[in-house]
Design brief:
Elements (H helix, E strand, L loop, with lengths): L4 H31 L16 H9 L4 E6 L4 H15 L5 E6 L5 H7 L6 E6 L2 E5 L4 H12 L4 E6 L16 H9 L2 E6 L11 E7 L7 H12 L4 E4 L9 H7 L1 E3 L3 E3 L13 E4 L15 E4 L4 E3 L6 E7 L5 E3 L21 E10 L2 E8 L15 H12 L22 H32 L1
Length: 448
């Protein structure tokens, strides 16, 4: 087929226009890339991007964040810091990062109290935090503490053998108190015999498993505290209701006789049947984000009185196969339907709400104190649950517990069969396909 001169000129003009438009589109895309950015994290657990709670927190920070990294001329460490801050800068543009070599500025490093290479100093709204851990958990927690305008004090009642937030014993709560401190929540103890008043700056009163009866005067002080609409976390243990019975009556909660047991926990490697398991959580602010199982050693079942002055909702309930064992927990135990034992699921945690003078009072009553103890805090979701309960009770609904993002196993294990398939495919079949395709195209063009 012979192409005329006019058709030839038209094709050439068409090619020129196409080339011009193609170059113009490339230039436009290049300009757009300087104005906008699009990123996507394809890692299995999104470890190269911020979690949704961190992003939510950043949106609430309306002041400039200044980060100063005191690090030596270590390219790897500086790149690690830059990559961490860059994750936050994508969602909040007014974050500045500067590097200072402490060897070159020892006076400034000494003034800031720098002790480790790579330590960060974070400033926000006139406040300062130092940070030695380079991960999202630590940095977001530091920003939470800086953003908190109020000083949070969780006060633990003492004087009756309660769990001690400063104690090192297995049953004490020292580890949990340290975790609260990391969240910007301070804790202290109070003995109402020595100091017959609850401080005004108390954001939450915790009564954790008293071993003796509270005195009438102490009950009166606590009731006055509750009448003012303040928050309370009450942790009870089986067969110890008498020590806190006046408080239980005020709250409209009863402790069931016996201990919650689950004889099938041996399937999970737990030999003690008194370890109650909670695997599902209600859609409640304090629990709806929890995914892992939580463990409650020696828990008491709870019920709510019909005439309770509080609006109650279930926080924690054990599995259907559990029950409240009132007899000896030895040997082959089983549920006795002819006794006062209750068949599961057993409620072991209630959330109580009440409107007092326009404020929403929040109270949590749990039938176990061991789950927050130094021995058992690290089991399952116990720590997450404890932190979430404190934050909910403090009305810190926007505060969060950032899960650690660990790198999954990215190794690709290929069998010998697949190795052979990949080898033949790339070395023979793929080149052969290109050759055949080229020959077919060449033959078709040769016809014309």
């Amino acid at each position: 087929m012979k192409i005329s001169r006019q058709a030839h000129r038209f094709i050439r003009l068409q090619n020129i226009v196409f080339t011009g438009l193609f170059i113009g589109i490339l230039a436009l895309l290049a300009w757009l890339s300087t104005q906008y950015s699009v990123q996507s994290d394809w890692t299995s657990n999104g470890r190269n991007s911020l979690s949704a709670p961190s992003i939510t927190l950043l949106k609430k920070l309306d002041q400039v964040i200044e980060v100063t990294a005191y690090t030596s001329e270590n390219d790897i460490l500086r790149r690690q810091i830059s990559e961490l801050i860059a994750k936050y800068s994508r969602h909040k543009t007014d974050i500045s990062l500067s590097f200072i070599n402490p060897d070159m500025r020892p006076d400034q490093a000494r003034e800031e109290g720098i002790t480790t290479d790579g330590e960060l100093i974070i400033r926000y709204n006139g406040k300062r935090e130092s940070l030695q851990q380079l991960n999202e958990q630590a940095l977001t927690n530091a920003l939470q503490r800086l953003a908190n305008s109020q000083q949070r004090w969780v006060v633990f009642l003492s004087g009756h053998g309660e769990r001690n937030p400063a104690g090192q014993a297995n049953f004490d709560l020292n580890v949990f108190a340290r975790e609260l401190k990391n969240k910007g929540i301070n804790s202290q103890t109070i003995n109402l015999i020595d100091t017959p008043t609850i401080p005004n700056n108390t954001s939450l009163l915790v009564i954790a498993d008293p071993q003796t009866d509270l005195l009438a005067g102490e009950i009166s002080l606590i009731n006055d505290y509750l009448s003012a609409g303040k928050q309370l976390l009450l942790l009870a243990e089986p067969d110890k209701a008498a020590h806190i019975q006046p408080l239980l009556d005020t709250l409209g909660v009863n402790l069931l006789p016996g201990t919650v047991v689950d004889a099938t926990t041996q399937m999970f490697g737990i030999d003690d049947p008194t370890f109650a398991l909670v695997t599902q959580y209600p859609s409640h602010l304090a629990t709806r984000h929890l995914q892992a199982m939580s463990l409650f050693p020696g828990a008491a079942g709870l019920t709510v009185k019909k005439n309770s002055a509080y609006t109650t909702s279930t926080l924690l309930a054990t599995l259907d196969r559990s029950w409240t064992e009132t007899g000896s927990i030895e040997g082959n135990i089983q549920f006795d339907a002819n006794s006062e034992e209750e068949q599961g699921p057993i409620t072991i945690g209630y959330a109580l709400n009440k409107q007092i003078e326009g404020t929403n009072q929040r109270i949590a009553v749990l039938g176990d104190a061991d789950f927050l103890s130094n021995s058992f805090l690290g089991n399952g979701a116990n720590l997450d649950l404890g932190i979430s309960l404190i934050q909910w009770l403090n009305h810190d609904d926007s505060l969060i517990d950032i899960p650690a993002k660990t790198a999954p196993d990215t190794a690709l294990n290929i069998t010998d069969t697949w190795s052979l398939i990949f080898g033949l495919g790339f070395l023979f079949f793929l080149p052969l396909a290109f050759i055949v395709t080229g020959i077919v195209i060449w033959l078709k063009r040769k016809k014309y």
